Every structure is written in structure tokens, then in C-alpha cells.
Fold these 4 entries.
Entry 1:
Amino acid sequence: MIHPTRTNLLQLKERRRAITGSVRILKARRQALIRELIASSHPFLQSRREIRRDYGEALDGLHLSLGHEGRESIESIAGVSQREVALEIESKNLMGVKYRDVSVGETVVRRPSERNYDYTATTPHLEESIHLFEKTVETLLQLAAFENKLKRLGDEIVRLTRRTRVLEERVLPRMQQSIKTIAQYLGERERESYFRLKRFKDRRTARAQEST
């Protein structure tokens, strides 16, 4: 229980103003992060749609190629055309939210002449399938960057929401009740002091009249 003094009342009111200001700042930051989350979600969802489309078409082309080329031939082509892809991971900060951005040093999608085999001896189905698989990998890498960013933004939005609710639903109501209780107590004390002073004055006036 806070001691009901005028000093404590003023301090409580000052703390209430500070917390109210903090709530406004938290809500503004949360709203800004939500806008960024929505803006970042569009390319994320677009990338997911592209992956489903390209991967499905790549599998269809691969199944057709297996019938024309044969499994051994395709496995041989896969062995000679594989390569390492350089990735760059950069730490970024968005309004206090830290996340990692993944970028590819070079394009994953190659021209047929860059795949280390004689593409003139293969079928168009296989070439289109390889192209779509490489495109899917490239989109997946882009998606990885979006996923990390969206997860960090989502976690921060949840944290801000919880903190704001605690301040609005617990801290501020308790503080408001304490202010009300202390203000009532001080008001009663002031009224009591006023009536005591009034009775004292009335008695002095009565004694002064009796002595005259």
C-alpha cells in the first residue's frame, strides 16, 4: 500500500503520464511493424506460389525425360552439372528488429551452355525441367530471407502486443485506483481539517462575544 501523501500522489500521476506515453510509443511502433510485415508478406506469398508452380512443372518434365533419356543418363548429367552456390548472409536491423538477409552471390539459373554437358543431345523436356529446378532453388533462397524477416517481425509484434496489454489492462488500472484512493483520502483529510478549523474559529468568536 502506497502511503497516502500528496507527494506520492503527484509521483503516481507523473508515472501514469509516463506510462501512457510509453503505451502510445509502443502502439505506434507495433503499427509500423505490422505495416512492414504486410508489405513483406506479399513477395513471400508470391515466392511460395512460384515455387509450387515451378516445382510441379519441373517434376512433370523430369518424368517425361526419364522415359526418353533413361535414369542413368539423367543421373550422369546431374553429377557433372552440380556446383556450389555462394551465399551472403547479412545482419540487418529494422526499427530495432534484428534479422538476417540471405542473398545469392551469383544467379542460380544457368544457360544450357553453362551446365558442363552437351545440351544438344538432350530433350527439350529435360532442359526445361533443369531450368525450372534451378529457378526453384533460387526462389527458395529468396524465400529463406523472407521467412527469417517475417518470423522476427511476427515475434516482435507479439511481444509488443503483450507488453501493451499488460500496461493497459494491469499496470494503468492499478495505478489509477491508487491515485483515486489517495485522492479520496487526502480529500477527506482536507475536509476534516476545514471543519476542525471552522469549529475552532466559531469557538473563538463565541468566547470573544462572551467576554465583551
Entry 2:
Amino acid sequence: MASDAKNVLGKNLEICSNNPKTGFFRDGCCRTGADDQGLHLVCAEMTEEFLNFSRSRGNDLIQAVPAFQFPGLKPGDRWCLCVQRWKEAFEAGVAPRIVLESTHISTLEFVDLSDLEDHAIKG
């Protein structure tokens, strides 16, 4: 259990990833705060297709940026994505799979639960 925050299933928000360390607060959790303009709420498992899509939209998630404690991502890494980027990828047919238990409940303000469930990593 990551914090008092809830996930999209209404249960306690679980850790998304500690390797690489993700989340706006770099605590492994997809939770947000007043300074998080991107709303890093969706725990997603990176794919080459999504990483290339994100780069084509001006957000290179492959290249490391040490100043922001950003290691650079590769397929298979789990990362807290901005909800609007995930939604954009979903609408383009390239959304990565997600971990429902680690995706913040506020995601439901932007995306339908059924769409999230369709992209959920099972088990």
C-alpha cells in the first residue's frame, strides 16, 4: 500500500515502480499534488510503440534527464504517465497496458473505467 490515495478500483493505491523510481514525487506511486501540472496518474508498462509515439508528440521518455531524476525508459518499464498523454495514445490506438491497482482514482475524471480495464495488465 503506497499511501492513503485510492486507485481506480476504489482500493488503496499500490506502488507502480521502484525500479525505475517513478511518480511525480519519485516515491514509486502515481499520485499528484498542486505542482504536478501533467497529472502523472496512470501506471503504465512501456512499449516501444508508445515510447516512439510520445517522442513524436514532443515528450521523449527514452532519453535520460538526470536533472529531473529521470532515468530514461525502455519497453517493459513501468512509469506514471500523464493522464492526458495516455488518453491521447488511447485515441491513437497506441496506449500502453496499465496496472489498475497502481493507477490513481482521479484518472476516472478523464478516462472511462471500461477503457482502462480493456488495457489492464491481468494478474
Entry 3:
Amino acid sequence: MQLVLDIVSWALILAGSFFTVVGAIGLVRMPDVYTRMHAASVTDTLGAGLLLAGLMVQAGLGLVTLKLLFILILFFFMGPVATHALAQAALHAGIRPQLAEDRTNRLEESETDGRQS
């Protein structure tokens, strides 16, 4: 039974670590504020959620699991609220999202500038 719990907990921990690393890479690679916020919210919600779930399975029933559950609930409620508030503040400040058309036009312009040089 302990072997099954170890396998499940390590699978959850590794999956959470994977989503955290992917979210961190997304933070660096994404082109604008809004897509970066999306990458950060994936890291907060899915990565941290899976990590905490794996830690809860590893800890077993007890006070530590209850504390981890409270942290998980805090992440699930406060992360999306903070991301939404940040997006609203960015919109209010006049930061416009980059659309696919904007990126296509910018790529075409850079190709045209490269040929003229």
C-alpha cells in the first residue's frame, strides 16, 4: 500500500513540477503582458495545485495535510483573483493586448525591412 501512495504522490509532484517549469518558460517566452499573466496563472493554479496534492498524499492524514489543504484553497481562490485584478489594471492603464494580426504585420514589416537593408 505504501508503494502505491509513493508512486501516486511522486507522479503528482513530478506533474506539478512539469507545469511549473513550463509556466516559467512561458513567462519568458510570451510576447505581451496578458499572455505572460496566463502563463503565470497556469503555474499558480495547476503547478502548485499538483505539487500540494502530491505533498498531501505523501503526508497522509493529519495536521500537515490539513495545513496543505488550506494553502491549496488559498491558491485556488487568490491566484485567479490576483490575475484578474492585474489584467484589469493593465487594461485601465491602456496596455492593449497583442492580437495575431499585430504579430503577423510586425513579422511582415521586419522581413520587408531586412530586404531593403
Entry 4:
Amino acid sequence: MIMRLSVVLTLFVAALFVATPAVEARETDYDELCNTLVPNMTKPIVLDFWASWCGPCRTYAPTFQTVERTYRYRADFYKVDVDDNSDLVQAFEIQAVPTTIVIYNRDGDYLREEGVLSAYELKSLIDRACGKFSKR
């Protein structure tokens, strides 16, 4: 009986991981963000400004991905490599990485936090943006 229960639990846990697809924010650039994403947004847009050489960015990446999995129905998530997207870096005046930007309306208004955020802090930032969200 204990052996059967162990097998059933193992199969159940494996099914949970298979049923929850891995989510990974895709990259975006200035043209796509300004000409497509923001004008057609249906929910807030979360941008993670990062760099491959940045230790704190590597620390923040798993938190960003975890929150993305749980909040993907409330916001759209994108990563912005600062080395490849100087136009976005200038547009948002990025001085440090990681920096998280949450755009909450089609006018491009946003909330901003610099540094490594905890899951609670990132969720709170997104929740605030959702409260301000407007499709105008």
C-alpha cells in the first residue's frame, strides 16, 4: 500500500510540472515596444532591464521568472538586454541594472524600481500598476 501511494504521489508531482509550461519572458526592442506593444496593450507591460555580465541580474532572473509564471494573466513580461537596446536604455534613462519598469497605460506612463526585487516587491509593483491600468 505504501509503495502504491509513493508511486501515485510521484506521478502526481510529475504531472504538475508537465502541466505547468515553463514561461520565459521574450526580448523586446524600442520599435516593437513603442509601435506595437504599448499602443495595443491590454494589460500592464513589465520590462526587466538586464545584462549578461551583471551578477545582480543573474540573481534577480529566477524571481522575475517565478513572478511571471504566477502573474502572466495580469501582465505581459519582457526582458531588455541593455547592451543590445540603447534606444530603450536612453528612453527610460536606465542608469543601473537590473531595473524593472511596469508600463500601465498607452500613454507610456510607468512605475520603476532599481535593483534586485523580492517576489513580494515585484508583485506589489505589478499590483500597483494594475490598479492604475488604463487602455486609453
